[in-house]
Amino acid sequence: MNSTIARADRTSSLYWHFAPTVLALGYPWYLTKFYEATGTHSTAGALFAMALVYAVPASAFVSLLTLGRLDVSGRQTVILRRLAHLTFASPPLYVITGVLLYLMKINGADGKVWLGLWAAVIVGSLLTLSTERSDTVLSRPTVNTSRVRVLHGAASVAIIAVYLFPHLGNHAVGIFGTDVHKSVMLVLRHVYRAGWLEPILIALFFFQIVSGLVLLAPKLNLKHDFLGAVQTATGAYLVIFIASHINSVFILARYFGTDTDYAWATYEPTGLIRDAWSERLIPHYSLGVLFILSHIACGLRTVMLAHGVSIQKANRICWTLIAASSIWTVIIVAGMLGVRI
């Protein structure tokens, strides 16, 4: 009887991990409050609303970090880790939801659809948890993902060299003005928009989505440290972010003949802050840039550890790169929000 009570206590304690997802239910309304606060020039209100926006992925990360440090990886824990990773990706999920509804000509229903989808996720997770025994322990994964890791890394190097770093560098110069950004962009487009190269880049991005999910799945029932949690969380975010970005660029914009330049990305002349729809792009872009660079840093850490580099040195290099990534992100986001030098 005591063991039954103990299992029930462990099960009930796990339900606290639904808090980030419950917080995510209000995500559209936090953004609305931010828009309203900026309209009335209420700095405190705007900061508080945006704090709630970022609290959704932040609380989800705390949840998955806590779950990842448990000694026993049971089925219930894995279910909650999946939920935490999905909640962590709320910013790009809300963007892709809005774009899809726009393409379907469904206006003004973003918040209602968001609420319905997350309610279904919460109910489904609760029902699944209720059918799982809290003392059921999963066996360690036996799948060999070494080849997938190598291919994932090779594809990353190709994307970084040909597109990502030049593209993010281009966005960084946006702080000097739209004209400077455009002049650099026109030069770079001759490379990554070449008729033979662009389809290859798109294929590589899709491969990264699929291979990333393959690499993530077996890690859901393994313990991990802080940087390990950063790697899986940012990977989950990027799966949705990349899909959302490709959908926005190639379906929403290019299909309708819109040039996907800096003015399009920053919604000029209105700006991201002043537009009721586009303000969702602020957390989407800011976290997207930081997380893609941090994911690369964590991936490099994994490679270093696999090649015998001490964990202290690998961690130090990783944190240095994340710090540099944060500075890069601030410059890009500042430019996108209208700051000029």
TrEMBL record:
InterPro entries: SQR/QFR_C/D. Keywords: Membrane, Transmembrane, Transmembrane helix. SUPFAM superfamilies: Fumarate reductase respiratory complex transmembrane subunits (SSF81343). Signal peptide: none annotated. The keyword Membrane applies. Coiled coil: none annotated. It comes from the Bacteria. The keyword DNA damage does not apply. The chain crosses the membrane at residues 12-31, 43-67, 79-101, 113-129, 150-176, 196-216, 236-256, 285-305, 317-339. One of its GO terms (cellular component) is membrane. This is Uncharacterized protein.
